[in-house]
Amino acid sequence: MSVLSVEYVQVEVTPRGANERDPSTGSVFMAIVAEGDRPAPEDWVAASWDDSTYPPLAQVMVGPTGDVPLAAGSYEVWVKFGVGMESPVLPAGSLEAY
Hints:
Elements: E1 7-12, E2 28-34, E3 45-46, E4 48-50, E5 57-62, E6 73-81, E7 89-97
Antiparallel strand pairs: 1-5, 2-3, 2-6, 4-5, 6-7
């Protein structure tokens, strides 16, 4: 994506197992960090759910006026969400900004 773009980065979050709860009923956060890094507490930003599809999509606005401005480079996308007493933190893919 261009560093000049303002758009959502979306991540599919699929419940695992027959008894898993719909993750979109809880809070969601996303972190976009330099490739090879793990998110630090200050990297997490509040995200939102697009639950118009199933499985739901966690999403955060990226770009110069978004929640996460990016410089050119390679990034890893992470998602953290709360469902009941659990709060999974999962790697969710990569992103190339140019």
